[in-house]
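ok so for the tutorial part 2 we go from a plain amino acid sequence to predicted structure tokens. step 1 is just haveing the sequence, like this:
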Amino acid sequence: MKILLHVCCGPCSIFPVQSLRSNDHEIQGFFFNPNIHPYKEFERRLDTLKTYAGQVNLPLEIDDRYLLEDFLLQAMSSENSRCEGCYEMRLTEAARKAKAIGSEAFTTTLLVSPYQNHEMIRAVGGKIGNQESIPFYYEDFRSGWQDGVKQSREREMYRQPYCGCIFSEKERYCKPKQKGTT
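step 2 — the prediction. this is what the tokens look like for a chain of 182 residues:
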């Protein structure tokens, strides 16, 4: 099957690419990640992905628009959570790109992370697939998370310490102070 793989970054793409190829799927990578903040982080993740894609012969389409304001509006106005709005924004573009290039389905490397909400990704992907008339291909790639981490370290790839958005950056680095401490 010809599958468009939405790619959030190089390290997270390692296992999904290997898994999909081992099942004889033809993969086209697609980078669209307006959630990544700050811009230097966006550039660094994209550069790392380009290098990796070249090393493993992954065809890659890049939408390098930095739509931070659009992402923030979507995340802040989502009925359920900011992550749901983020998934909707990125997977909608992935579904549209998949249709435009003649893919039979679309999926995302977000499904490799144990930190992402798989049930929400699956629901959002299915909803968007129905709206855009292209199937969302769900595969739980989490079993390959640790192997992907190992391989990315062996390749000396840049590994980011948060999902990419300003909200997760804050959660990662801005810990509330304990009472009684200065």
